[in-house]
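Hey,

Quick one before I head out. I ran the complex with pantoate overnight. Inputs first:
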Amino acid sequence: MVVTHTIAELRECLRGVTGIVLVPTMGNLHQGHLDLVRIARQHGVFVVVSLFVNPLQFGLNEDYSKYPRTLEQDCKKLEQCGVDVVFAPSERDLYPQPQQVTVELPPVANELCGAFRPGHFRGVATVVLKLFNIVQPYIAVFGKKDYQQLYLMRQMTAQLNLPVDIIGGETVRASDGLALSSRNQYLNVAERAEAVFLYQSLAGMRLSIMDGVTDFFKLERQAREALSARGWRVDYVAIRSQANLAEPTASECNLVILAAAWLGQTRLIDNLEVLKERGAVPGRNLDL
Ligand code: PAF
């Protein structure tokens, strides 16, 4: 495995290489990332993983400076997974001058997480487009844990005609159900024990929907109230259509429940897809 730190080094390394699959990350890798690498290896002959904590996607008071940077450990893990090249550029290399050319995304980028993190997805899309231009992959793998991000990356590649297929990897969870995230390590012991309640709330909502409940606003409100009652500060709990992340009609079958909430100083996000049986009989409790 070759570790590159500049665009020039990386380009030299990739000269003549085809069939590249890119896994963009911000490092501090956990099993969720390694699973994306596994998917990448299934799809391509040459796997590049980028490690870059992108300042453009962090708000002023967010955790950019404390975001864990663990290059050495990350490289060891990636070597064991059979990654071909790591790209870990410096901020100066990726942003040699203030980044004034950015990617304008569809309005849904300003909803859900975008409503609470203004400019976040513009920052994500801009760095991902730069990475695509630098690495020139034909496939890129993103985690479903960041469901809105995955949707927007699909929109960006489709609407800008980028020659990259986007693949979504399933969320990897701890044994109690908590979605793996680099930010979980900010949680203290009590918060870590409580954190699983976010997943449990979404799982409860999914059961209700599968059971025929169609009053989505009520389900969202109940989940928000339950979280707040346990001390969470809720950004949003939302049931949306998988197809476009818009508010769904009651008859829509492919749904996703998304949530973001704070436990102490830590903001956690999670989501669950719901596939309602077409014509399912309301009231019948499906075994999940
Ligand atoms: O999902 C992430 O880790 C980041 O948003 C990404 C896609 C690597 C862009 O910085």
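The domain at 2-169 is CATH 3.40.50.620 (Rossmann fold).

Talk tomorrow,
K.
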